[in-house]
Hints:
By secondary structure, this protein is mostly helical. The chain contains 23 helices and 8 strands.
Amino acid sequence: xxxxxxxxxxxxxxxxxxxxxxxxxxxxxxxxxxxxxxxxxxxxxxxxxxxxxxxxxxxxxxxxxxxxxxxxxxxxxxxxxxxxxxxxxxxxxxxxxxxxxxxxxxxxxxxxxxxxxxxxxxxxxxxxxxxxxxxxxxxxxxxxxxxxxxxxxxxxxxxxxxxxxxxxxxxxxxxxxxxxxxxxxxxxxxxxxxxxxxxxxxxxxxxxxxxxxxxxxxxxxxxxxxxxxxxxxxxxxxxxxxxxxxxxxxxxxxxxxxxxxxxxxxxxxxxxxxxxxxxxxxxxxxxxxxxxxxxxxxxxxxxxxxxxxxxxxxxxxxxxxxxxxxxxxxxxxxxxxxxxxxxxxxxxxxxxxxxxxxxxxxxxxxxxxxxxxxxxxxxxxxxxxxxxxxxxxxxxxxxxxxxxxxxxxxxxxxxxxxxxxxxxxxxxxxxxxxxxxxxxxxxxxxxxxxxxxxxxxxxxxxxxxxxxxxxxxxxxxxxxxxxxxxxxxxxxxxxxxxxxxxxxxxxxxxxxxxxxxxxxxxxxxxxxxxxxxxxxxxxxxxxxxxxxxxxxxxxxx
Length: 557
């Protein structure tokens, strides 16, 4: 079988063919900006994961550069992220840093295989309630790990389990270091204010620099990076192949699969966010292959797992990024800082880093998704709740496995419910006439899309193909739901995303002919608020009539 070399070209190579000084200027500003934003985050994620801050910096530099150079997204920015904090901390606690390096390498190999074999599409089969559940849970866990440093508590090492950790924090509540607490409050407040009033200026870096300068000037009695980890060395550590512990291989496969799953999922989610912001289309297989290589190389420099970072990617795009060069400049910016100013990092107060991570935990939590899921069926709510509770109180690997099992059972139940055996009578034939398209007068400037079969997790990306071609669509789009036999939370999200894409492009979108189960889902999800009740039609006749009304209002007087 012939290999299509063009389909495996990284976005950087395609971008270089038409690169210009103008594009470089845009990428330079974006790369410098996101490099500064990544500085405190890389250190904070590493510290929260139980490794020295230089491990996070090495990851952002090495993995961030390789993922941008070899990846399938034009504007993706990669590095350590909050999704890994809980998993990495657990691995370090059980197997030490050497075990972590082995897990990272194994995870990189798994992600590389997913990309090369095209199995990255399997990530789409994780339903929305599972994704939201463990994202909510991870955010809670990250926040809980920051409370000791945020309050400056006299607590040597909090337990790894959530309940035990919260109990130990409560027992140590009388040891609050008030200067640390108020400095942390100031850092969080500054970040929040900057986001509201000057969103283009990175609040995290201002909080880092300002908090450090304030603590040094007043000689505040607060714990610092230097007090806990010593001075951060300049530059990258020498390349060193981590020793492979064959006796641990069996026990490390599970954590490696979890890291690979999280890394693949977050990278592709981040790439999709970048696509929506830039109107581009990423290559998921190339992106996963690049992330796999980045995670294979990262532990050679003492790094930790890396993935596409949604917040940093969005920051880069808002700062003007046009090509993968911005992601590479972000890595080079961090390298220059490490070479020139690494020793200064020892003065950074731990409470400031904790405050930055508390903001990150809040932002990554996807809290607005919860009411939407709870409005849907009890089964979807149960999948979310089980995943969330197991993530917080048990283990992330167990949570994802349990959530997937429940989702699979739910999938089977919904598909089986779409099988109907009934008699065809005159009433059935009459009722069907208003849904038939044949012989209908379809007005100009209208495109009809139909969804046929169960629209559940794993199949929703098929609608994305039309969202990507939205600029080629006429002013009015009708989505025909007559043959859509079932829908779930992931399908509901896909319909909302498609409607948003249509509206943002200045197009009207109508939905018509939903059957009983999908119709109930649309009502519980309050879909009418998203698209307008007048744009949800009972049949195609009503949709065509509504389309004529819209077309009449669009015509110039």
